[in-house]
Amino acid sequence: MATPRILVTRRWPQEVERVLAARFDATLNESDRPLTEAELAAALKDFDAVLPTVSDQLPAAVFDQKGIRTKILGNFGVGFNHIDVSAARAAGVAVTNTPGVLTDCTADIALTLMLMVARRAGEGERQLRAGEWQGWRPTHMLGSALGGKTLGIIGMGRIGKATARRAHFGFGMAIVFYNRSTVDDEETRAMKARQLTLIDEVMGASDFISLHCPGGAENRHLIDAQRLGLMKPGGFLINTARGDVVDTEALVEALRSRSIAGAGLDVYEGEPSIPAGLTDIENVVLLPHLGSATAETRRAMGMKVVDNVTAFFDGRDPPDRVA
Ligand code: DGY
Q1: Could you tell me the pTM of the whole model?
Q2: Which residue among 76, 104, 106, 213 is best mutated to probe the pocket of ligand 1, counting the most ligand atoms within 8 A of its Cβ?
Q3: Catalytic residue IDs
Q4: Which amino acid residue places its CA nearest to atom 2 of ligand 1?
Q5: What is the DSSP-derived secondary structure letter of residue 256?
Q6: With a 6 A CB cut-off, is 262 part of the ligand 1 pocket?
Q7: What would the pLDDT profile of 275-286 be if each residue is shown by its tens digit?
Q8: 29, 6 contact by CB (below 8 A)
Q9: Confidence band (pLDDT; 50, 70, 90) for 60?
Q10: Which of 51, 84, 150, 153 could form a disulfide with 74 if both were Cys (CB 3.0 to 4.6 A apart)?
Q11: How far apart are CA 204 and CA 230, in angstroms?
Q12: Does ligand 1 come within 6 angstroms of the Cβ of 159?
C-alpha cells in the first residue's frame, strides 16, 4: 500500500509532527491557521486521514459529498462533539480520540479555577496591576475556603474522579455526584463520595459544582436558569467540560445578580469568541481553554493519535475508536 496521505489541521508539538512526517506522507499546517468548514470538506476528498482537533468543525454537511477518500479522522482531543460521528460512520470514516492522557491535567485546571474564583485571585491580580491595591487590611478582598465545603461533580468519569480526588484528599472537601450509570468503585468509596439520583439534588447540596460531562446536543444547556437557581447563594460553578453545557445568558444573569457567588470557566459556547457580558463581570474567572495545555499532555495526546492512525493503516483496531 502507498504511504497514507495525511493532513494535520493545526500546529502540533514538534516531536509528534516529526514522527508523523517520518511515518506518513504528511501535510502540516505550519502557519497554524484554522481551516474553514469548506477546506475541511475538501480535505476529505484529498487525504487518506485527516487529523483534526477540538476547534475544527466537522458537522454532517462535510460528510454529505461524493468521492470521500478519508478513511479515518484521528482527533487530537478527548472531546469529539465537534464531529458528527454518525455522519462520519455513514460515510465510512472511522473516528478516534485521545482519552486518559489529559485526565490529571484537566482536573488540575478545575482545581485552579475553584481556588482562583473562591480566593478572588483574578480580581486581586487585576486590582494590583491597575495600581489600585492599598495594602494589607483585615477586611480586604475576603474569599471563601474550600476545606469543609461540598463539591458536586456532574459526570463522574475519569476527569470527574480526578477532580474529586484532589478536592477530597487535598482540600478536605466532601464529594457528591451525579452520573448516568452507577459508579461504585474502590476509589469513589475511599472518598466517601455519595452518588445522588438527580442533577437537581447535586446542584442544591453543593458549595462548588464542577462539570465533567460531554458536550453536544444531548447535554446542551444542561445547566440552565432553573438549575442555576437551585445553587446555594454562596455557590460556585466550574466548567472545564464544554461551553454549551451551560446556558451562558442564564449564567451571566446569575453572576450579575449574585444569586451565585462566582464561576470559573475554561470553555465557552461558540469559543473563541467570549459570550457578551462575561468579560465585564468581576466574580468570574475566565481561562482560554487551557485544560490540557501542558507540554507533557499535548505530546501524549499527539502520540495517541499517531498510535491510532498507525494501527488503522496497519489493519489493526485503533485503540481509541469512537466511530
Ligand atoms: C479535549 O481534548 O476535549 C479538551 O477539551 C482539549 O483541552
Answers
A1: 0.97
A2: 106
A3: 242, 271, 289
A4: 77
A5: H
A6: no
A7: 889 999 999 999
A8: no
A9: very high
A10: 51
A11: 5
A12: no
